[in-house]
Amino acid sequence: MRAAADRLPLWFNERARMRHFAVIGSGPAGFYTAEALAKAYGEGATIDILDRLPVPYGLIRFGVAPDHQSIKAVAKRYEKVALEPNVRFIGNVHLGADVSVEELLHYYDAVVLATGAPNDRRLGIPGDDLPGVIGSAAFVGWYNGHPDFADLHPPLDVASAAVIGNGNVALDVARILSKTPVEFAGSDIVAHAHDALANSSVRTIAILGRRGPHQIAMTPKELGELSHLGAASPVVDGADLPPPEADSALEPGQRKSVGHLRSFAASPADPAKPKRIVFDFFAKPLAIEGAGRAERVVVERTVLAEDGSARGTGETYAVEAGLVVSCIGYAAPPIPGVPYDNKLGLYPNGNGRVADRLYAVGWAGRGPTGTIGTNRPDGQGVAEQITALFPPGGEATGRDGPAGLDRLLAARGCDPVRFADWQKIEAAEIAAARAGAPREKLVRVEELLRARGH
Ligand code: NAP
Asked: Per the database record, which ranges form the FAD/NAD(P)-binding domain (predicted)?
């Protein structure tokens, strides 16, 4: 005899077993989570990927440097996920303003926060609010065509810039500030940044690290790129380097990075190249000064303390800089109704679980560290927790999922952007590309919405 449920029409059974998941953010962490959920549930789940911008890919589009196209190629993998039959991209929907986390938890079985960490951490020193002082999220967003920073207009009419921090973002910023238009061939740097940088007066870029060469957070490939710049030479003062034998205590990647610094120290700056990228180690910013705009960073000389932190020596000096870009890390955006750790700038969680049916992945859950690939196990881990809670094929909770969200967005007059719309936007960007460039990004939300053709 057939069980009662078996006598119901097939569509009813399928619907009854359907799970509904929402992922907030369409960057790497969001797409790896969606990929893992799609794999675990097959056609037994709908997965909606929401983004506040009308375009997908988050950090890949707006964070990864425009001259690092090979890293951006991972978007092709995410595209495959977005084209899965049960996955939807829903852009131009603002969490908080258009829909709340509480509402999403009402419609979906689980909600995964994959917002990334788009907010700059403040330096917190006098003068950090002067014109000309810019956080890396804003500066990187500007050259990558992020709509929020299209009108940044960083001051490039100055001879000297300072980049604060010793991570890969500091390297990206210093490299982009040094490159000539020829070196941007094949990149997707946006026209406004391409043209502004072509006319830049910046000749000296000081990279300020509060600790020493052994404490850098720069990876070898990215450091090595500085040896091949067309118009800039890297400069390292050999006196800042520990004795070579000390490098043996470093792990291999770090040893290689420090090896690059040693070779910069050993090579005189190329007189044929007009720009200098000067590594200033043991230099802790104390204040930024200037008459109505940034003119200099006041720095305290440091030494390494026993615990590895930077200890001030009391000796100070000034580093001329009409542009100051702080590259000292990021924070996730606080979301009403979601616990937030102010110090770490993330949603506190245990292995990704923030609260009942609410999860955080990637930078939103573990802070702004690691490579793009680091987000993959994050997404898989959270997908495993979700499948443990809602075993694939089991009885569903009867939530409305996409139908509920669509009703709510329509009632609120929202104008969501679907993946097919993005494909039209992308086609328009590819058609508008400079010769040799992959695309010319549209940088205003209105332009992006118009490019959908409806
Ligand atoms: P990061 O690697 O954490 O580096 C931040 C730097 O800022 C550190 O050198 C830190 O120094 C310094 N800092 C922090 N607070 C400071 C303060 N108050 N004053 C002065 N210096 C301060 O962060 P990131 O460069 O933003 O990079 C984020 C992540 O993205 C990293 O995992 C990075 O590798 C990755 N990324 C990768 C690439 C690539 O692979 N091509 C490109 C860009 C970014 P202390 O060490 O002394 O704290």
From this structure: 21-180
